[in-house]
């Protein structure tokens, strides 16, 4: 029986998880699995978990663990015969434990980025909401300012990417990530 490689990249908002995951997945022939992509997909398909997730997101709340695991674990089961790299999951100890009940992780990478770098990246970050494409006004500009390169639709900046919300967001990340990091040490 072939051995499949299971990995995840952890890191605070703005640490570059998506960029790094895509590069690693491409270089090593892994399936790149983004929790953000699965959230958008579940919402667009109007799945039960997607509808639940949308109700939290619209209120500016984090999607609870049980909803995230209902979105992610069936996708991972479908890909059980593939090697993969996770981006954005698991974020909490409950999510990590649910994942560990299905799979043994081969590698978990934790990105440790200085606060000032995160602050700079996030304050310059603009997103195409429908696709999740990310632009940075410092080093990854859209071809037309304020517009997505693919669709031409407007880009947005999340309220929690603005400097005034960043400290609380990073503090929360540290609180929930520490047990996950400790689990995978």
UniProtKB/TrEMBL annotation:
<feature type="domain" description="Adenylate kinase active site lid">
    <location>
        <begin position="125"/>
        <end position="160"/>
    </location>
</feature>
<keyword id="KW-0547">Nucleotide-binding</keyword>
<dbReference type="GO" id="GO:0016301">
    <property type="term" value="F:kinase activity"/>
</dbReference>
<dbReference type="InterPro" id="IPR007862">
    <property type="entry name" value="Adenylate_kinase_lid-dom"/>
</dbReference>
<dbReference type="InterPro" id="IPR036193">
    <property type="entry name" value="ADK_active_lid_dom_sf"/>
</dbReference>
<dbReference type="InterPro" id="IPR027417">
    <property type="entry name" value="P-loop_NTPase"/>
</dbReference>
<dbReference type="Pfam" id="PF00406">
    <property type="entry name" value="ADK"/>
</dbReference>
<dbReference type="InterPro" id="IPR000850">
    <property type="entry name" value="Adenylat/UMP-CMP_kin"/>
</dbReference>
<dbReference type="InterPro" id="IPR006259">
    <property type="entry name" value="Adenyl_kin_sub"/>
</dbReference>
<protein>
    <submittedName>
        <fullName>Adenylate kinase 4, mitochondrial</fullName>
    </submittedName>
</protein>
<comment type="similarity">
    <text>Belongs to the adenylate kinase family.</text>
</comment>
<keyword id="KW-0808">Transferase</keyword>
<keyword id="KW-0418">Kinase</keyword>
<dbReference type="Pfam" id="PF05191">
    <property type="entry name" value="ADK_lid"/>
</dbReference>
<dbReference type="InterPro" id="IPR033690">
    <property type="entry name" value="Adenylat_kinase_CS"/>
</dbReference>
